Fold this protein.
Amino acid sequence: MQPKLKSKVRGADQEIGEVTKVIVDPLSHEISDLVVSVSGTEDRQVPMCAVETVTDGLVQLRMSKADFLEFAPFKREDYVTTHEVEIPHLEDHLHVTPGEVLVPFPELERNVKRRTFFANLTHVIGLFIGLPLAFPVLKYLMKPMYSPFDNGWLKIGNVGKIKADDAGTQFKYKRKVKEAYLPEAEIEKNVWVLKATPAVLEKVYQGKDMEFHDALGKTIWTNKKDVPYIAFSGKCPHLGCGFKWRQHKVLGQVFLCPCHLSIYDAAGKVLDGPAPRPLDPLPIQISASGEVQIIDMEFKAGTKSQTRIV
Ligand code: FES
């Protein structure tokens, strides 16, 4: 008969305590030891060879209580429960509550710190070997993300296309772009150009020339406040949609963004809608022959302040 949990444990001379756990040999599935609680002192681990008989609810030991107390106190940290370590078919052999069945802590797991150290060492060595190989690839992939802005001038058309003052005229152009590791592609973009009257120029420039800077803060171009041509980025500062020059029932001619109905006047000022800032003016210059050139810039959408992103 197998010892049961909570069975009384008796010595040769007197009652000792009760069985609180059983320890199983993971290979033979036989109970090798009992853990016996004793009032007033630590639990003791008793080998099965010290057991004389097992009856229903009672474990009789061969020795006296004094001899029993010579057994080493039970060290819980040396064992794991059979919940933590799977022992196949254990329940076919054992008839005690599984949660209280212990097996010796696996030797391999005791060395876990040492194993972890070697595993980490392997990773570090792998990193040292792999990094020089991966570096050129990473550099290639990340280069476009950190390349400086392109501040080259783009020819987009001739001022002859503009038919009236203070009226938006759309100029389309193509531009080559390189996104991260993707191949270079050509995309179509547009800006709106105005031949502005002094009143509109004043609203845009407020009496000051407008400077444009590179990523380091160096001035790359200055739009002079009295040059009548103004170019606005074709992207709405709200969320980046394309907008149009349209007739409004009440406001007259305006820039109208169809996405969320932001409305801007000819100077790019917000008249209505959710746009957080005016339209974004771009660097513009007109050649002697009337060729319009701009520096293509894009700014973060949805923000009150202007932050260049392209
Ligand atoms: S994107 Fe233009 S109003 Fe929203």
Q: What stands out?
A: The first helix runs from residue 65 to 68. The mean pLDDT is 86. DSSP finds five helices and 21 strands in the chain.
